[in-house]
Design brief:
By secondary structure, the chain is an alpha/beta fold. It is about 40% helix and about 15% strand. Helix 2 crosses helix 6.
Length: about 350
């Protein structure tokens, strides 16, 4: 039980923390990776930690179906589908997004797991939020009429309940780094819907834990620091946390989002190739690729402390490589590795 909330534990934790020896040597820093991509359902990823809490709440409320939202290629949606399948429930995903022209990547996996995806065209007469709200209500009514009790999970699983997954992860990491005899630990994680980062930051501040955490923004936000402060305030109110944190207390970097979400970026692809060729670890172009690209550039610019032990959380998302707009560019760039003899 964490902060008074129970979960159903079903993932293979603790996930390993591995030293990236070659990358560390070449970048001149001590870099480790927390392998949350190795969690054990739906090809893995960070959202499974959050879903341990959501599935407990959903079952307690008698739900028979999980409904969530995201982009057409949502990783969170894929993992929601996986958890629903494991627990004998139905799942569905609603996205204000265009049909990408093919069933690939997460969309393919959603179908394999029996999860319908509802794509909503943006008609430019209403905001995305309005379109999403209307579509969620319509899909909920459709499945309720079929006899299902629908439980809604927000974007990325990033609300007060979902954040507890990474509150737990911070405690898990504190035990691991103690056993590894690592000091001056500095976690670096991707920031999208921000539940992973806020959970870590909340635990570090309130337990307290002798670690730091930096978040790397992968999509533009009007004010990423205020976004974090508002989210933390909701957590503080929900769970009676004692520590006050203001916008300036959150270490967040939005310099490497390249002006978009899930947008193809040459620097990011080069970072993916580098990690694959140096460590045999595959990153994705939307989340972890952007995060590692930021780490590379900060290290090369001398902005990372050589005395700290950095741990990048691999949040998963590898199916994103197979989305058409990323895959086609990689195919062009990697054609020279193909030989027919």
């Amino acid at each position: 039980m964490t902060l008074g909330k129970e979960k159903i534990s079903f993932i293979n934790v603790p996930t390993p923390i591995e030293k990236l020896n070659t990358v560390s040597g070449e970048l001149g820093i001590n870099l480790y990776m927390k392998r949350d991509d190795l969690t054990n359902y739906g090809t893995g990823g960070n959202k499974l930690r959050k879903l341990e809490y959501f599935i407990k709440d959903a079952r307690d409320k008698g739900a028979t179906m999980l409904l969530t939202v995201g982009g057409a290629q949502t990783n969170h949606g894929r993992l929601t589908a996986a958890v629903a399948a494991k627990f004998g429930m139905k799942a569905a995903i609603v996205a204000v997004d265009e049909y990408p022209g093919e069933i690939s990547a997460n969309l393919l996996l959603d179908g394999i797991m029996g999860c319908p995806v509802y794509l909503v065209r943006n008609d430019e007469t209403r905001s995305e939020g309005q379109l999403l709200k209307k579509a969620v209500a319509k899909v909920t009514d459709e499945w309720t009429a079929k006899g299902e009790k629908v439980y809604f999970i927000p974007l990325g699983g990033s609300n007060e309940l979902g954040a507890l997954g990474y509150y737990d992860c911070a405690l898990e990491m504190a035990d691991q780094v103690k056993e590894m005899k690592l000091d001056n630990v500095h976690i670096i994680t991707t920031v999208g819907s921000m539940g992973t980062y806020i959970g870590l930051a909340a635990a570090i501040a309130n337990e307290p834990l002798d670690m730091k955490v930096t978040g790397i923004g992968i999509s533009p936000k009007d004010d990423i620091h205020q976004f974090a402060a508002d989210y933390y305030d909701r957590l503080k109110k929900a769970y009676g946390l004692k520590v006050d944190l203001k916008a300036q207390d959150f270490d967040l970097n939005s310099d490497f989002d390249y002006g978009g979400y899930n947008n193809p970026v040459d620097d990011v692809r080069q970072a993916i190739y580098y990690m694959g060729r140096k460590e045999g670890i595959i990153l994705d172009p939307c989340y972890t690729g952007k995060t590692f690209n930021a780490i590379m550039k900060l290290a090369k610019d001398g902005k990372l402390n050589k005395n700290e032990n950095y741990i990048m959380i691999h949040t998963g998302g590898v199916p994103g490589i197979y989305t058409k707009h990323h895959r086609s560019l990689m195919e062009e760039e990697l054609m020279s590795y193909m030989h027919i003899i």
